[in-house]
């Protein structure tokens, strides 16, 4: 995912001079307090921010965010490519009632608990070894939530019985155990990535990644019943390692693979 860089700073004392980024930056303060300084309309502004604060920074905006004197703070950061974000903005605009999404409409600081929790969850996901499809889906959903919240306009409801959904379901059924990206699915569906996420969730109750994992779990059950080793099943069904397979299997079945295999032998 070359269009995004993520960072988590824990108990940091680091200070920065005023600077800018060519990317769109999104920060969320986890603990401690900081002075957020920025230039606006040729004037320098400073604001003290603390836990739960969300800080969106437009590309090329001059700013600095440093902990209060003799204090430390923890925060989550995203640096998102401007062209990628502009393309997503256009995708979201296409789903609105003729209302354009304006990135410039974002406030300097936000205090929205549900959005803050989503930022933290997605940042942790991005820094994990989870599949790219899940990361792409969650990042797009997060940025859409940010822009939709700030622009305060309703989206059109997804259309019923859209053929793109069945095409993607068939593709995922066929390639469930392979590594798949959101771009691949969007090309298969012949719609934008953002529109695909909305349509698919609306019609199936799953994100594309959750649907893929569901299919992998069903396939793994068949292999476990045939006495395949757990390590082999994890490999054959596309999981990154045995631990990831065991964790996912238990989330979907409330049993470990070994428990399921043992139970199926008794039937």
How would you characterize this protein structure?
It is a single chain. A 4-stranded antiparallel beta sheet has the order 1-7-2-5. Strands 4-3-6 form a 3-stranded antiparallel beta sheet, with no helix packed on it. The longest helix is centred in the middle third of the chain and has 20 residues. The protein is built from 10 helices and 7 strands. Helix content is 46%, strand content 18%.
Write the layout of secondary structure elements.
Blueprint lengths: L3 E9 L11 E8 L2 E7 L2 E7 L4 E4 L5 E5 L5 E8 L1 H12 L19 H14 L5 H20 L11 H12 L7 H8 L3 H12 L3 H18 L4 H7 L5 H12 L3 H9 L2
Antiparallel strand pairs: 1-7, 2-5, 2-7, 3-4, 3-6
Provide a quick synopsis of the model:
With 267 residues, the chain is of the alpha+beta class. It has helices at 82-93, 113-126, 132-151, 163-174, 182-189, 193-204, 208-225, 230-236, 242-253, 257-265, and strands at 4-12, 24-31, 34-40, 43-49, 54-57, 63-67, 73-80.
Descriptors:
267 residues; alpha+beta; Jelly Rolls; Arc Repressor Mutant, subunit A; four-stranded antiparallel β-sheet; 10 helices; 7 strands
